[in-house]
Every structure is written in C-alpha cells, then in structure tokens.
Amino acid sequence: MKILKIATRKSALALWQSEHIKARLMAQHAGLQVELVGMKTKGDVILDTPLAKIGGKGLFTKELEDSMLSGQTHIAVHSLKDVPVAFLDGLVLAAICSREDVRDAMISQRYVKFDDLPQSAKVGTTSLRRKMQLLRMRPDLNIISLRGNVQTRLRKLKEGEFDAIILAMAGINRLNLADEVAHIYPFDIAQMTPAMGQGALGVEAVDDAQILEKIKFLNDERSVIETRVERDFVTLLEGGCQVPIGINARLAGEEIEINAIVGLPDGSEVITENLTAKKSEFESVGKELAREFIARGAKELLKRAEEMANL
C-alpha cells in the first residue's frame, strides 16, 4: 500500500485530528502517502434540531463509514466520545490514541467561574449528559441546545446569545482556543463526569490486515485500558451517544479510578458511583459496574430520559 486515504469531516477540529494522524503515519512509514478526503455528514448539515431527536452522534460518522465500505477511503479519525459502540460489518475500531485533557469546560466572555453565572443564565450545549449535570448543580440555569462546529459556537457566544457554552477541554487545547475567549473554567471530574472516550482519538478502519498493520502503532495502552472500561459500561447499558451517561476511568499505577453517572436530562434523578478497581480487572469492571447500575434501575431511568429528550 502506497497511498492511505483518511475520510474526514471539514470542521476545524476534525481536520486537526486527521492531519495529526496523517503526520504520525507518514513519520512512522517512510514512503507512505496519506491523503485527506473531506466530506459533509448529515450531522453537519442539520443544525437546527437537537441530536437526540435526529439519531444521535452516529450522524457524524455514516458518510465517512460509507466511503470506507465503498473503497473510496481506508480510515477515519474520530473523537472517541462521538464513536458508537457498535460498528458496521467490515469496519473496526483499529486504534485508540493517547488522551488529551478529559474534562469538560465552561467558556464565557463575562464570567470567570461556574458559580459566577447569574440566576437563569443561558448556557449552550447539545449534550444531554452535560445538561443533566449542569442542572443537577444549578437547576435555575436555562440550558439551550447549541449545534454547529466549534467556531460557530464561539461566534454565538461572542455575539451574546449565551452567557456561557460547554466544550471539551481536548478540543479547546487542540485548536488553541485559550487566546480566543475571555474565560475558560474546567470542571472537576467530580462536578462533571465526562463522556466515554472523551479526550481520546479513535481510528476506525476497514477490516483489512494490511491497513490494520500500518495503524496499530497508534494504540496507547493507557487509553485502551481506560476507554475499554468506559465503552463496556455504556455498551451493557445499551446507551448510545445521545443519552445522559457519564463515565470516566483513570489509570493510576495499578489501580483504575472510576466515576459514573446516569440520570434524567433535567438532573432531577441520577444514579452515581465512584470506585477504585485493580488494573488487572479492566476487561470486566466496566460490565460489572453497568450490571450494578442496571440493578439500581438505570435502564428504566434511561428509557425515561430518552422519552424526555424526544418531547
């Protein structure tokens, strides 16, 4: 193989991610040509409807996956938090790269800290997980759906449509946004549990031995272990990308520290758990935690959450 083609969305963050993987591939394999193939997804086009009502974050991957299955491209680079837990036949999650900052952050032009937000402040996010946790902390907030790429969201913030918006620190860091906004307030994980896979890049690929061999070096052991716990938890709960589930696993030496939360989008009911497991248990602990949540009524809660989201 002399040319490897990467399917990519055209947003600034998606292009950064694809260019990053392109550079690593070319540095690893002398003589390999890597090309980006840009395309728009349904999720990029439909911006006036919350994701939960139009099919979830899989809307950002379908066109990329179709291009791989048709032979037009070979791999696609995603923010792992946006990658569904199930894959189409012929495609695999081939690599999980080292993680950036996993936290969520509040960005504001006027308010330094979350506690500084005034009563009934307008906060923009399209994530039901973030909405649940924001309202759990501050039921008075006015959470407004905010779609579009990062630059579109920043423009709306700067034009005064929102008092604050919520973004992932990974994207903030990768796009060097610190100089573009007045205030960035990262939430502690105990305040705002991240999404599964947040901060990591996932490389989806055609299930072809030659392709998989070229990209396997991208795997990071720490990220693989942490995200295995997180994705197992979500898989067993049968929770897609657009349900209020937060799960974060952090490898610390021979232990894994885990925070998890499931609840209703309005934050009125939640199930939470914080625990420490052995590193050697990483292939089972996510499933065990999910079973505990199911025993505590998590599936019924998620069904109600889905009904609320579709109202």
Task: Fill in the keyword field for this structure.
five-stranded mixed β-sheet, alpha/beta, 311 residues, single chain
Overview of the structural elements:
- The chain is α/β, with parallel strands linked by helices and 311 residues long.
- Helices cover 34% and strands 24% of the residues.
- The chain contains eleven helices and 13 strands.
- Strands 2-1-3-10-4 form a five-stranded mixed sheet, with helices on both faces.
- Strand 11 (245-252) and strand 12 form a beta hairpin.
- Helix 9 packs parallel to helix 10 (285-295).
- The chain is globular.
- The model has no long low-confidence stretch (mean pLDDT 91).
Topology:
Blueprint: E1 3-8, H1 12-28, E2 33-38, H2 42-45, H3 51-54, H4 62-69, E3 75-79, E4 91-96, E5 104-108, E6 122-124, H5 128-137, E7 142-144, H6 150-158, E8 164-168, H7 169-174, E9 183-186, E10 201-206, H8 209-215, H9 221-237, E11 245-252, E12 255-263, E13 270-278, H10 285-295, H11 298-309
Parallel strand pairs: 1-2, 1-3, 6-7, 6-8
Antiparallel strand pairs: 3-10, 4-10, 5-8, 5-9, 11-12, 12-13
Helix pairs in contact: 9-10
What's the quick description here?
This protein has 311 residues and is of the alpha/beta class. Helices cover 34% and strands 24% of the residues.
Mean pLDDT comes to: 91
Q: What portion of the residues fall into strands of 2 or more residues?
A: 15-25%
Residue share in helices?
Answer: 25-40%
The number of helical segments is: 11
Strand order within the widest beta sheet: 2-1-3-10-4
* Largest sheet composition: 5 strands, mixed
What low-confidence regions span 5 or more consecutive residues with pLDDT below 50? none
Taken in chain order, the helices and strands follow as EHEHHHEEEEHEHEHEEHHEEEHH
Number of strands: 13
Rg over CA atoms, rounded to whole Å, is 19 Å
Q: Alpha-carbon distance between the termini? A: 49 Å
Report the oligomer: single chain
Shape: globular
Secondary-structure-based class equals alpha/beta
